[in-house]
Design goal:
Blueprint (H helix, E strand, L loop, with lengths): L2 E9 L3 H13 L3 E4 L7 H4 L31 H15 L3 E2 L4 E6 L5 E5 L4 E9 L6 E2 L13 E4 L15 E4 L3 H11 L5 E4 L6 E2 L3 H10 L9 H7 L5 E2 H8 L4 E3 L3 E4 L5 E3 L9 E4 L3 E2 L28 E3 L16 H11 L1
Parallel strand pairs: 1-2, 1-6, 2-3, 6-18, 8-16, 9-10, 9-16, 10-13, 11-12
Antiparallel strand pairs: 4-5, 5-6, 7-17, 14-15
Length: 347
């Protein structure tokens, strides 16, 4: 089997992987980018139809290429996909598509061997893992107690309200911005929507002034090693106050509090009150690590990567795009660039 040799291999052609590619190219390093999808930006293109970036275009650019069009708009998910495609094409990055990585192991000598499901084999001195902010959908244990007739759908597979069966009650479980957007999308159909949202979740405005303050004060760049940064890292992520307020205004929406269990009839138990039997539940409950393909001793007991600003104990192996890799901006399109530069120049 032919082995492709390359100095640096970037796994994942999302925002983090492309930011890494920019700085590798700037530095003159030989590199390749692998991605499991058929096109750059496809992860954004396949997300739910109503999704928009939570930051305006002027605050969402990757290094070296600003967004075209109005800088004040909040781009749609399709615009985000197009921006990433155009970014990769503009810089002519060597992106190899349909290359889902199946294993990353140490080489017999220096470096690492990466194999893909498609049968390609690569040997690289450095590997930058940019596969996103965890990838395995996470649902609570009590989801298994819901009876079979209740449709269960994770937010990563939700695209539009027509996917959800019936016209009766549906619950959206989660305390993040995706939960609010999906609940509003379902509420627009007129069906009863029960929102299992933690009442303790804080909310902030999402407007141009807020983003100007975040950028000018440097709050998005505060490191997790800083006292205030650590406080922010361990605090629940706030949601957009305008989205929360609008959702509360729907007559067919009820907030039931944090979900705590399931009923035999097919409803949910929650802090405020239970729901009636449901047609469906959408779990907007996040993701967990899924790195079983990486055969290196660089994870803690929970499967979370151990790293120092992305750099791991394995020489030449780094992560990018993880939540709080270094700062609040580490997993944001407009904030990943500084982490990418630090990784590329220190790897």
């Amino acid at each position: 089997m032919e082995i492709t040799k390359v100095h640096t291999l970037v796994i994942g052609a999302g925002q983090a992987g492309l930011a890494a590619a920019y700085y590798l190219q700037e530095r003159g390093v030989e590199f390749m980018v692998l991605d499991e999808r058929a096109a750059v930006g496809e992860v954004w293109a396949t997300r739910f139809d109503a999704l928009r970036l939570f930051s305006p275009a002027w605050a969402s650019g990757l290094p070296g290429l600003p967004w075209s069009g109005s800088k004040l708009r909040y781009p749609s998910k399709d615009e985000a996909a197009a921006y990433l495609r155009n970014y990769a094409a503009h810089f002519q990055f060597p992106v190899h598509l349909r290359q889902r990585v199946s294993s990353l192991v140490p080489a017999s000598g220096p470096g690492y061997v990466v194999e893909t499901v498609a049968g390609a084999i690569y040997h690289a001195q450095h590997v930058i893992i940019s596969t996103g902010a965890y990838t395995e959908p996470k649902v609570p244990v009590f989801a298994a107690s819901l009876p079979a007739p209740v449709q269960q759908l994770h937010s990563s597979h939700y695209q539009r309200s027509a996917q959800v069966v019936g016209t009766g009650p549906v619950a959206v479980v989660g305390s993040g911005n995706s939960a609010l957007q999906i609940a509003a999308d379902l509420a627009n159909t007129g069906r009863p929507v029960f929102v299992a949202f933690d009442d303790k979740t804080s909310a902030l405005p999402n407007n141009q002034l807020m983003w100007a303050l975040l950028k000018s004060t440097g709050l998005l760049r505060l490191s997790r090693s800083n006292f205030l940064g650590r406080r922010m890292m361990h605090s629940p992520e706030p949601v957009v106050s305008g989205d929360l307020q609008r959702l509360r205004g729907y007559a067919n929406v009820q907030f039931v509090g944090r979900a705590t269990g399931a009923t035999p009839e097919g409803g949910l138990l929650a802090r405020r009150h239970p729901t009636p039997p449901l047609n469906a539940v959408v779990w907007a409950t996040g993701f967990r690590p899924a790195y079983d393909w990486i055969k290196l001793p660089i994870f803690d007991a929970a499967g979370v990567p151990r790293h120092n600003r992305g750099l791991t104990e394995a020489p030449g192996v780094a992560f990018l795009g993880l939540p709080w890799l270094n700062s609040r901006g580490s997993a944001l399109m407009g904030g990943v660039g500084s982490d990418a530069k630090a990784v590329v120049y220190n790897l």
